[in-house]
Structures are given as C-alpha cells and as structure tokens.
Design a protein that fits this description.
Order of helices and strands: EEHEHEHH
Distance between the termini: 16 Å
Low-confidence stretches: none
Helix content: 25-40%
Largest sheet: 4 strands, antiparallel
Strand order of the largest sheet: 3-1-2-4
Number of strands: 4
Number of helices: 4
Length: 109
C-alpha cells in the first residue's frame, strides 16, 4: 500500500504555481521534508490517494498530464485548477481501470 500525492509550490519569482505528482510508501510528510531540502520555496500537500496500485496510478496521471509538464526532466506540472480539483477522482478512476485490467487481462501487470 502506498500514496499518490499532489504537492504545490510557487516559483521563486512568486508568479507561477507548480504541482508535483509523486508516490511514496512512507508518510507523505517525510517525502515533503526530503523534497524541501532542494527547494527554497515552501512545498504544500494538497491532496493524496492511497492504493495498492499507487505506482501504476501515478504513471497514468503522468501520461494524462504530459502536456502540462513544467520541465521535461521531472515530475512538476503546470496544472489547470480543474485538474487540481479532480485529482482524487482522477486517481480513483485510474485505480479502477488498473484493477479491472489486472483482473481480466493476463498480459497487464
């Protein structure tokens, strides 16, 4: 069991909010402390979702929001408000799809 989380921070110029979609098996607060050491701006937990399929859920969300990446080399995104608001629902839908595939498709693992 692990967590998919949505974090928020503001760029140093204060003009742009960035969002990180990530995963952890530990307490999310521990992960935030680790990320905070490399970030001069405060990082805030906005939402989280717990699942057995947390890595697969994160992968699907990264694909869904691929066009919103803030930087091609990391997990930070420029998300529209509607995606921030629907994060937990999007996680649940992805998780339901993954469960269905795991139960019914022997080639999906």
């Amino acid at each position: 069991m692990g967590y998919v989380y949505l974090l928020s921070t503001v760029t140093p110029d204060g003009m742009t909010e960035r969002f990180k979609i990530g995963v952890t098996k530990r307490k999310i607060e521990t992960r935030i402390r680790e990320l905070q050491t490399g970030n001069s701006e405060p990082i805030t937990l906005l939402k989280s979702y717990q699942s057995e399929n947390y890595v697969k859920v994160e992968n699907l969300l990264h694909k869904k929001y691929l066009g919103s990446k803030a930087n091609a080399n990391n997990e930070w995104f420029k998300l529209e408000d509607k995606y921030v608001m629907s994060f937990e629902k999007d996680c649940e839908e992805a998780d339901d799809t993954i469960k269905l595939l795991l139960e019914n498709n022997p080639f999906f693992n």
